[in-house]
Amino acid sequence: MELRPASHGDIDGLARLVAGEESQPTTVAGMGLFGLERFEDALELSRVMIESTRGWQAMTVADANQAVGLIQLGEAFLAITPEIVEFAQRVYGADFQQILGPRLAVLEKVQTEYPDGCLQISEIHVSPDHRGEGIGTALMNHAVEVASNNEEYGVMGLQMLTDNPARDAFEAWGFEVADTRTDSEFQELTGAAGYHLMLRELQGASPTRP
Ligand SMILES: CC(C)(COP(=O)(O)OP(=O)(O)OC[C@H]1O[C@@H](n2cnc3c(N)ncnc32)[C@H](O)[C@@H]1OP(=O)(O)O)[C@@H](O)C(=O)NCCC(=O)NCCS
Known about the structure:
Layout: E1 2-5, H1 11-19, H2 25-33, H3 39-52, E2 59-63, E3 67-73, H4 82-92, H5 96-109, E4 118-126, H6 135-148, E5 155-161, H7 167-172, E6 176-182, H8 184-190, E7 194-201
Parallel strand pairs: 4-5
Antiparallel strand pairs: 1-2, 2-3, 3-4, 5-7, 6-7
Helix pairs in contact: 1-3, 3-4
The protein binds coenzyme A.
Residues 20, 24, 26, 124-126, 131-137, 160, 164-166, 168-169, 172 line the site of coenzyme A.
């Protein structure tokens, strides 16, 4: 397994990694938030977002003859591109703005704030078939290396759904819950109370484990 920058040809594999499994909390919440009923639509939305916002350009891939994991460092790429609008019109119809507007406002209510000097981990995903093999740890060690080699950063952070079992992995990697934002409407839509902000200090940071 090697870590390498993502290329345009990886986009379908990256979308599959971000969409994960239909039953996992991040996917359940995403589909609930956007009112998507078909997993295929969640997969397509991931693909359109990764490609049209150029999010793939900030991704590092764990490659084992295919993309088995990814990490995206820096702020999330959240632009509403023409391709995303086209997806929304196809799935929700002409009045997509009335459907999506209130849902995006609910999402806004549970956003936490990153402190100054924080390297954000905007995405980290490992293929369901390869979890527990140390790939997430390798991706996290890459992030620690990037952050430690840049004086700008004193801390690393990510936002995580309050019901995500992956919290155990992040605590094993030295992250702690620094803030929590919850909202009843968000919970109705997604099944999760809200988001935790998880932070890890970088002073004296060393790789997590081989
Ligand atoms: C979180 C995630 C990236 C971890 O990747 P991974 O490759 O399984 O991680 P590792 O194999 O390096 O294991 C690290 C820790 O993850 C946890 N873990 C291992 N297998 C797991 C599994 N099947 N499911 C959940 N957590 C698991 C363990 O705590 C493990 O520590 P241990 O080996 O000391 O027991 C992965 O579970 C994932 O993609 N989850 C879905 C997406 C997600 O929730 N991303 C983070 C929030 S945005």
